[in-house]
Amino acid sequence: MTSECSLDTVSVAIGLADAAADSHSYPAGVRLFIQGARADAVYLIQQGLVKLTRSEANGQEVIVDLKFPESFVGSAAAIGEAYHPFTAITATRCKLTRWNCRGFLLRLATDDLFSKCVVNALSNEVIDHIAHISQLACLPARQRLEQFLWQLGERLEQGTIMEQSSGEAKLQLPLKNSEVADLLSVTPTYLCRLFNSLEADNVIERSKGWIVIKRSELWHSSIGRSVSGS
């Protein structure tokens, strides 16, 4: 988003007097809505990370997207009065602002600044989706993993899952290895090899469940803001 529609600006735009919205903290593992349900709420992520999963007719389920702070989760289905094409689950402890669909659409229709922020967020999603599809098709798996780690370091700076020092980010992965493998379209075994390769090349360090990433050493794309289409 542009600075004009930063998270602080959106928070001000919401306003304490907006009775249609409420903000709460959610633990990891909370299901916000399920695939196939009609949209009845929209969530703004203020802190934390939300994962989106999708199941197909053969029973296979994969993570299709991650949502970072400043994302409006469920907004597209709410605007289109459609069914959700995925399930949304908190991947970490999150602070979320929630609207029922009626309150969200009313805010969208009557508040120009709020409307611009939502439009910018949806535009960023389209850009990120295109970048992610291209990366899956064209980039080697190691670069996709480096992009994912770089994205976590950049987008979760204000969250609770990481600590930061000059030029480095210390974090715990907010997803299981199998989920990261799904997101990057590799097998869990190959993902383990990729992590070992990054560690051998001194791009990351691992200790007691923590990963220290050296940002200057990580490959990342200048197109799009998220490996996962946040």
Please describe what this structure looks like.
With 230 residues, the protein is an alpha+beta fold. The protein has 2 domains: 3-134, Sandwich (Jelly Rolls); 140-217, Orthogonal Bundle (Arc Repressor Mutant, subunit A). Helix content is 38%, strand content 26%. The chain contains 7 helices and 12 strands. Strands 1-8-3-6 form a 4-stranded antiparallel beta sheet. A 4-stranded antiparallel beta sheet has the order 2-7-4-5. α3 crosses α4 and α6 crosses α7 (188-200). The radius of gyration is 18 Å and the shape is globular. Mean pLDDT is 86; it is low at 225-230.
What distinguishing features does this structure have?
four-stranded antiparallel beta sheet; alpha+beta; 230 residues; single chain; 38% helix; Jelly Rolls; Arc Repressor Mutant, subunit A
Assembly context of the chains: single chain
Q: Can you summarize the main beta sheet?
A: 4 strands, antiparallel
Number of helices: 7
Q: Which CATH architecture of the largest domain is right? A: Sandwich
**What is the CATH class designation of the largest domain?**
Mainly Beta
Could you give the distance between the termini? 12 Å
Give me the Rg, rounded.
18 Å
Major sheet: arrangement of strands: 1-8-3-6
Mean pLDDT metric? 86
**Total number of beta strands:** 12
Task: Give a short synopsis of this structure.
The chain is built from 7 helices and 12 strands. It is an alpha+beta fold.
